[in-house]
Each structure stands twice: as C-alpha cells, then as structure tokens.
Amino acid sequence: MVPEGGGSAPPKGGSGPLPLSDFERLSAFAPREVHDGYSQKNFRKTLFDYAQRQPPSIARLRWTANGQPSPSFAAILAEKTPPERVSLVIYEPKPDPQAWEFTTPTALVDSDSAGSGRVLTFRYNPHALSPWDPHDPGKEETCVVRFSVRESYIPRSIQQEHATNEGRPPLPPGFELFSIADFSRFVHSSGVVPFRAALHLYTSRTRLRYDLDLLHNHLLADPRAGRFSIEDRVERSSRICHGLDRFVARGALPLLPRRVLELLFESKGLSVQDVSVILGVSQELATAALQSLVGRQFAAFDQRTQMYLPLPQVFLTRAEAEREQRDEEERKKHGPRSETLKASVQELLAEVEAKAGCPLCGGPMPAGSPELLCDDCMAAVEQEMPPEEGDGPGEEAGSSTLPGPPGP
Q1: In the chain, which residues have pLDDT < 70?
Q2: Distance between CA 210 and CA 106 in Å, rounded?
C-alpha cells in the first residue's frame, strides 16, 4: 500500500488548476435527449458556480489510479474501464486540533474497483497540545470502501423542465452507496456529474466518513467541529452505519432532514438549538426537519428534556438487528479483543464483488472458494473464538508499512 515512489511521508505540493475539463467529460455521458442545449447551459453555470465556492477544508487530496497520478476523481470515473486500484492520499492537514474533532486523521485510503480496501489512520487527542502523535506509525485496517453523492448536476432537458412545472417530474437517478466500479457505471449511464461526495469506510470497529470536494480536491470540515461537544458523539457499529448510509444515499429525504438525520444518528440526542447552530439554519427550519424525522419514526421526542433522540435500530433488517444484538453481547462478554474478531462489517465484506484476496491478510484465496477468509485467517479466528462459535472474521492485518502521519 505504499504509494508509487515510496517515501516517509505523504507528498506535499500545490493542488494545480481546477480540473474542469474532467467534469465536462462526465456530462458528455448523458443521453442527448436529456442533455440538450438547455441542460448544457445549466451544467456550465452550475459547474462554474460551484468552482467559485470555497467550503471550509481541512486537508488536500491526491488521487492515483493503478499507481499513476490522476488530476481528479472525475477523471477516474470518466475512464472507459474502472482502474483495478485507486488510492487517495490525504496531505497538508490543517493543524487546528478543533478542526479534526469529528474527522479521523487519515493519510491513505487504498481500494480495488469492487470496494475492498485498507485505510491508514492515526491516534488523535483533540485536547492535547500536539494532537497527532509524531511517533505513531499509524494503524492499518481492512475496510469496505463506498461513495455516496452529496452534490451533483443532474441533466434535465427543457421538456423535462416543463413536465416538472406541470407536476410530472422525471424519475430521479438511482443514487446508492457505490463502489468505484458501480460509481463509474452510474455516471456513464446517467450523465450525473458529482461535485461533492462522501467517502464511507466500514472497518471492523465502525464507519469512518469523509466529505470530499471533488472539484477542488479538498477534504471538507465536519460541520460539528467547534460547534458541538465531542463528548456527546456516539460511535455506532459498521452494520448500523451501513444501514443509515444506504438509506441516506438514495435521497429518499429532502436535503436538510438528511443532514439532520446524520447528525442525530451519531449523538445521544439533539435540541433544536443544537441543529440550528451546527448547520447554520433558523430554529424554525431545524424544528421542521426534526419533526419530519419523528413523523417518519427515525427519531423520538422527549417532552421532559425537549431533546430529539435517535432510533438507529430502524435502519437494520430483523436479521441484521439480531446479529447486532449477538455482537453486542459478545463485546460485553469477551472484551475489546473479541470485538476485533467479531467484525460488524462481515456481511459487507461478503458482498464485495470479485474479491481476489483475503480481506484481512491480503493473501490469495483458493479459486472458487465460498469462504470469506483464507484458511490461515480462518484458523486464527477459530482459535480465538469460544468452541461453540466459529463464525467471525479474524484479527486485523499485521503492522503497517505505510508512510508515517503527515505533520501539521
């Protein structure tokens, strides 16, 4: 997983000109009857309006595809065939400790086109004078890599615009949680141009999420940083997070309730004032968004405390909820070591298409093997598990050989 050229630290340097042409290439995939002159004009306006925006960022991004530098993720999506391997280097981090309170410091994310990958993260203490330990070599974890669209341009012809005004809007595109290959197929078939995306990494512990500005190649700040207490954050399991992310990615809710749902999901509860401050909206809008979540049974309202409480279990199927309960009992019974073995992300790893290697150690899998892990990892897991239970992924892979943490 060492980037091309090696080195002891992630690369530094300027970000270069905005890759506008890469995004124009994506728009060209839209069917002609949808992306007519009216749509092309709107696309150019939307693209340049977004280019003028500078949302708060906390680091820069650099992409590589099959070991070769790429100017943008849009250029990777525009290729006829998705690359076998994509790496994202996060470098030149903002040194403000408060900016990273809700974002796990990360140097490198490496993934194959089907979404099986690894991530290098670092210890972080937002209350210390030097929050990133300079002697920490980093922690490498196996993960499932998925993307969801946050902001985009959706091609719409003048005829579709008229139909919308008459109350007959076209069907929305099929937004989902995408692997790199799925994301590529989606933009090639729909002509949707993503400007901003969320990167979801599902590890054995939890889900790590990063908000990516694809046009400026920036890692964006979490809106909670400096506005909400880190002590009130609740870390959910990968399985529950995947259920939420899958729902949010499909765009079944309007934008503001979606954002409020994500905030509420990772909290012990939020007040109207909390949402208003975090998202910078009026209390009237915050109240309406929270009440809409209660109406859809995604949240509950506590009259005594005037707090809105999350209901994370609603994002699980009955079978997933039963597995989640068993895993929670296992964590309480056997402690943290068993938790690393009972990976909540097991069924997500099993869904990754065409896996060529063991998701834990990276070693080759026997051709046609129905098992999730290689024989060595499975044997290691069975040694660690109680005799009556033998179903759980093994421990995380060995020590990292990746570059050390980027300096402030």
Answers
A1: 1-16, 124-134, 328, 331-408
A2: 10
**pLDDT computed for residue 2 by the predictor:** 33
Domain range list for the chain = 20-221, 325-352
Q: How far is CA 90 from the centre of its chain?
A: 14
d(CA 192, CA 173): 8
Could you give the CA distance from residue 116 to residue 141 in angstroms, rounded to a whole number?
11
Q: How many CA atoms lie within 13 A of 315 on its CB side?
A: 22
The Cα 86–Cα 110 span in angstroms is 6
Is 222 in contact with 211 (CB distance < 8 Å)?
yes
Taking the C-alpha atoms of residue 113 and residue 102, their distance in angstroms, rounded to an integer, is 28
54-66: per-residue pLDDT in tens? 889 999 999 999 9
Q: CA 230 to CA 217: how far, in whole Å?
A: 27
Q: Please state, in angstroms and rounded to a whole number, the distance separating the CA atoms of residues 74 and 184.
A: 9
> Token digits for 161?
């615009």
Token reading at 117: 């990958």
Which pLDDT does position 325 carry in this prediction? 76
Task: Output DSSP code: residue 97.
Answer: G
pLDDT at 407: 43
Round to whole Å and give the CA distance between 95 and 405: 12
pLDDT given for residue 1 in this prediction: 35
Listed in sequence order, the residues at least 6 apart from 376 whose beta carbon sits closer than 8 Å to its beta carbon are: 361, 363
339, amino acid identity: E
CA 174, CA 263: separation in Å to the nearest integer? 24
Q: DSSP class of residue 230?
A: G
What are the tens digits of pLDDT across the range 323-369? 777 776 776 666 544 343 334 444 555 444 344 455 455 555 554 45
Q: List alpha helices for 296-386, DSSP H.
A: 318-334, 336-341, 346-351, 375-384
Size (the chain), residues: 408
